[in-house]
Amino acid sequence: MQETESIDEYILQHIDAESDYLKALYRDTHVKLLRPRMASGHLQGRMLKMFVEMIRPRQILEIGTYSGYSALCLAEGLQAGGMLHTFEINDEQEDFTRPWLENSPFTDKIRFYIGDALELVPDLGITFDLAFIDGDKRKYIEYYEMTLAHLSDGGYIIADNTLWDGHVLEQPRNTDAQTIGIKAFNDLLAGDERVEKVILPLRDGLTIIRKK
Ligand SMILES: C[S@@+](CC[C@H](N)C(=O)[O-])C[C@H]1O[C@@H](n2cnc3c(N)ncnc32)[C@H](O)[C@@H]1O
Predict the structure, then answer these.
(1) Which residues pair with 86 in a beta bridge?
(2) What local confidence, expressed as pLDDT, does residue 203 receive?
(3) Second label for 176, Cα 20 to 30 Å away, from 94, 100, 169, 187?
(4) For residue 120, what are the contacts with CB-CB under 8 A and spacing of at least 6?
(5) pLDDT tens string 150-204
(6) What residue's CA is closest to ligand 1, atom 25?
(7) CA–CA distance, 12 with 10 (Å, rounded to integer)
């Protein structure tokens, strides 16, 4: 464990720093919100930005805004004219998150929606080039099918938490709907010929999916 912590520290000292704004958001998330571990942090945030710079999407979808940390990193990587559409189902989150998004340097590149992405996204009529799936672990298959239907050919999906702290190796209890959901998603993807996929063992597992 000691060794893992040292490597994590080493990595953070040798990659791009997060901005003071993101540092402050991360701190505020931990002070004011329940379940702050849900927020992306320094490493994952820099990686999301890098993915956006590599893929150069015009339209990005995010399912699960929470405090807005990953949204700001995705928006930071967007080229001029690009737009991030980020969805949060919990309306109690709005008072915290909206000011953080609107006071950021990337506010013009972000549309923040309160509501269920599964209901709202199909009505937008937008074709996305990149999607970040980070909502309710029980619904990953539903998010995936909905997103795939609104994704450009050659577009990418990044799904977070797909190793679920190693629980994917276990036989889940009937009541452990989140582990059951993630395992079902991983099993579906493994045999899905519509896409290419790799799993990165970063943080809690990130699956990178490319629509053929
Ligand atoms: C893990 S947190 C997101 C963390 C954030 N993406 C980050 O990396 O900083 C998951 C969020 O998804 C939201 N959520 C769950 N189901 C959703 C849905 N169907 N549509 C939109 N948001 C949803 C939850 O309320 C929660 O705030």
Answers:
(1) 62, 112
(2) 82
(3) 94
(4) 87, 113
(5) 999 999 999 999 999 999 999 988 899 999 999 999 999 999 999 999 999 988 9
(6) 90
(7) 5
88 lines ligand 1 (CB under 6 A): yes
Mean pLDDT on 144-153 = 98
SS (H, E, C) 73-114: HHHHHCCCCCEEEEEECCHHHHHHHHHHHHCCCCHHHEEEEE
Nearest atom, ligand 1, residue 87 CA: 21
Q: Please give the angle made by the CA atoms of 7, 12 and 14, to the nearest 5 degrees.
A: 95
For ligand 1, say whether the CB of 72 is within 6 Å of any of its atoms.
Answer: no
**Max CA pair span of the chain:** 49
Q: Which of 51, 163, 54 is nearest to 62 (CA)?
A: 51
pLDDT of amino acid 202: 87
Distance separating alpha carbons of residues 81 and 78, to the nearest angstrom = 8
What is the spatial distance between Cα 6 and Cα 170, in angstroms, rounded to a whole number? Answer: 28
- With the C-alpha atoms ordered 32, 35, 38, 42, is the resulting torsion angle positive or negative? positive
ipTM (interface pTM): 0.99
Domain of 200, CATH number, reads 3.40.50.150
